[in-house]
Amino acid sequence: MHLTDKDFRGEERRGGDGEEKEGSGRQLERAIRLPRSVESPCALHSILLQVRDLGLGYDSDETVLFKYCSGTCPRLASNHDLTLTNLLQSGVLQYTGHWHHQPCCRPTHHEDIAFLDNHHRWHKVEKLSAAACVCMG
């Protein structure tokens, strides 16, 4: 899809023959094009890891499927956000440094993982792996 100035200003910048006029949408298109490395939206991802690589202190050569949440979340201002911003800017509330401006991708449910350690004992780690993700905040 080719963007023209009409897309942004409500007026067409092409001649009657369809030719682009100087300063038309091509330059504008280059100026607003998103980078190719835009991160994917919030979603559940997985990686195969050895239990010892989880960093929980277990001595095990077993491999487990660790699932986690990752990705971007849209910044949608709610009425709460708008009011809170207004109260902070007007000085009614003092900024404490604990208010996050961007929603983050977090698990809503977790799964347990069971494995056998190198001494032939079973272990169950509760709520280790993500089961579902959502944008929070």
UniProtKB/TrEMBL annotation:
Belongs to the TGF-beta family. GDNF subfamily. GO terms for biological process: system development. Residues 23-136 form the TGF-beta family profile domain. InterPro entries: Cystine-knot_cytokine, GDNF_fam, TGF-b_C. GO terms for molecular function: glial cell-derived neurotrophic factor receptor binding; growth factor activity; receptor tyrosine kinase binding. Pfam families: TGF_beta. This is TGF-beta family profile domain-containing protein. PANTHER family: GDNF SUBFAMILY OF TGF-BETA FAMILY, PERSEPHIN-LIKE. It comes from Cyprinus carpio carpio.
